[in-house]
Design a protein that fits this description.
With 305 residues, the chain is an alpha/beta fold. The chain has eight helices and 13 strands. The chain is globular. The structure holds zinc ion.
């Protein structure tokens, strides 16, 4: 049933992950390359990855997930924080470049939305219709689903949770504002908690130290988990989801992070003792979720958007 395969490509700030995905959400083959710096080279890398995948598995549908402000009606990325896309017609460019290779349809979606589609269809959000995905990596991103539909908002930018104000006049953020939530509850915040002598440790190094019993590293996870939980309480108050999924690199810490997160979340939540508090869990599909979701969207099997 090779005609049921689809190709999903997740274009991130640091890597491009392309995968051939079957109709059960299983990845048949995947290719990862570093994201080039120029817009032209990014497109060339995507085209080359898709052609390589097509040599081994037949597919006609291509789904692309991109970090940034995606206009799915026009198939353009209007703005991306880590790639110099400015109103870039990615869908049409790729459709044109790959027409001769048998690709007959191309769809474009925001990467967090695509990952949530994948978790809903094949992963930790199966059977759930009111779901928040919060990706905790270097910063914080996310997506939301209500009544089984991805909520994009007017500009397609819904889910940029990381830049909600957490601390008035707080730490400066790369976005130009101050006190953004991601400055307190992300991988970057974890490194800043551990900063001593000006050297920033990676999240993986801090996780290793915490698991080895280092009290400073454990305290860093406690502080970041607590900040994460306080922000999630606000999101629950606003959106009332049944499930919150935590993704991104920092979610690898599991209960070390989620313990203090859950505690702060339920303490801060309005009417917490008189309501069912949202379940808190980590994503199931890992780093390929964006590509799996993009493929599923291309095939038309994902939730209505
Ligand atoms: Zn910000």
């Amino acid at each position: 049933m090779s005609q049921r395969n689809a190709i999903g490509v997740d274009i991130g700030g640091t890597k491009i992950l392309a995968a051939t995905v079957d109709e059960t959400g299983s990845v048949l083959e995947q290719i990862a390359v570093a994201t080039p710096h120029s817009v032209e080279l990014v497109q060339a890398a995507v085209v080359q990855s898709v052609r390589t995948l097509l040599t081994r598995h037949e597919a006609h549908d291509l789904g692309v997930a991109a970090a940034g402000l995606v206009d799915h009606h026009t198939g353009r990325v209007r703005f991306a924080p880590h790639i110099s896309w400015r109103d870039e017609p990615i869908r049409d460019n790729l459709a044109h470049a790959l027409r001769g290779d048998g690709i007959t349809s191309v769809t474009l979606e925001n990467d967090a939305n695509a990952a949530l589609c994948a978790e809903w269809r094949f992963g930790a959000a199966r059977g759930r219709d009111h779901v928040l995905l919060v990706t905790v990596g270097t910063g914080i991103g996310g997506a939301l689903m209500s009544s089984g539909q991805i909520m994009r908002g007017t500009n397609g930018m819904a889910g940029e949770f990381g830049h909600m104000q957490y601390a008035p006049d707080g730490r400066p953020c790369q976005c130009g504002l101050r006190g953004c939530w991601e400055q307190y509850a992300s991988g970057r915040a974890l490194s800043m908690q551990m900063q001593s002598g000006g050297e920033l440790l990676t999240g993986q190094a801090i996780l290793r130290a915490a698991n080895d019993g280092d009290p400073e590293a454990q305290r860093a996870f406690f502080m970041v988990g607590q900040a994460l939980g306080l922000g999630l309480a606000d999101l629950i108050a606003a959106l009332d989801p049944e499930l919150i999924l935590i993704g991104g690199g920092v979610s690898m810490a599991g209960e070390l992070l989620l313990g203090p997160t859950r505690s702060a979340m339920s303490t801060r939540l309005v009417g917490g003792r008189h309501r069912r508090v949202a379940d808190l869990d980590v994503v199931a599909l890992g780093p390929a979720a964006g590509a799996i979701g993009a493929a599923e969207l291309a095939r038309g099997g994902a939730p209505s958007l």
